[in-house]
Write a structure and sequence with these properties.
Helix content: under 10%
Distance between the termini: 25 Å
Number of domains: 1
Number of helices: 1
Structural class: mainly beta
Mean pLDDT: 88
Number of strands: 16
Strand content: over 45%
Radius of gyration: 17 Å
């Protein structure tokens, strides 16, 4: 995900809901039937439907989140792709393609890896933080439960020495003010990693998606077009 986040270690409780019960440490294994995982889904906080677009800003910097119409098979699962495109001072600094699959029975969204292009002066300089489940000991993590609960704690990324982001659900009833307006009943995730110091805070609004990612805030409330259900021909490409 967004490379600008610097993260740190933290100890809390394990996550519950469909994927586990509270108590212990961050959950890093998930009892999931891969046959139930789909590239599209309707999780209220990460809705994997092609064509959805969110634009976040921080001063002159922008972060554009787009659900692409493409699919990618990873670790035996057909995943949908959420693209993040980050600009700083008008220059492209990172493009990541994040691979998500939604459980058709529970609505939980699982994270199967990301391809990363990091840019400098308009050219790709490296692919730092890229990983894929099933490669080099990496395993899929839980990106977002369908019904988050305070105290849930789980790994989103499980790629040893590469990407080990983990989150704690701090609140499911946060009120967040952004340039796009005020959002209620938001999920607040506190994100850390054992690989680096620091803490990242992310907020998700139901029916919208991510509205605040550290310094980035939703710039304008997305219209029906940006949140539209994809056309039948697009869904046919995905399924």
């Amino acid at each position: 995900m967004k490379a600008a986040c610097a993260l740190a270690a933290l100890a809390f409780v394990a996550f519950g809901s469909h994927a586990g019960q509270p108590g212990g440490a961050w959950r890093d294994r998930f009892d999931v039937n891969k046959a139930d995982l789909l590239p599209t889904g309707t999780n209220a906080y990460i809705t994997m439907q092609p064509g959805r677009i969110l634009k976040l800003t921080s001063g002159r910097d922008t972060l554009t989140v787009t659900i692409l119409p493409d699919i990618q098979e990873i670790d035996g699962v057909r995943t949908g792709i959420l693209e993040e495109r980050e600009m700083k001072n008008g220059r492209l600094v990172e493009v990541s393609r994040n691979f998500f699959a939604t459980d058709r029975k529970t609505g939980d969204v699982y994270y199967f890896g990301e391809d990363v292009d990091n840019y400098k002066n308009g050219k790709v300089v490296n692919h730092e933080s890229a990983w894929r489940a099933g490669v080099g000991g990496a395993r899929f993590g839980l990106m977002m439960p369908a019904a988050p609960a305070v105290g849930q704690a789980f790994y989103q990324e499980i790629a040893p020495k590469v990407a080990m982001d983990r989150v704690e659900v701090v609140s499911t009833d946060a009120t967040v003010r952004t340039p796009a307006g005020t959002f209620e009943r938001c999920v607040h995730l506190r994100e850390t990693t054992p690989l680096e110091r620091g803490v990242s805070h992310k907020y998700y609004a139901p029916g919208i998606g991510i509205i605040k990612d550290d310094e980035f805030e939703l710039a304008q409330r997305p219209g029906a077009d940006a949140l539209r259900t994809p056309r039948p021909e697009v869904l046919a490409r995905v399924h």
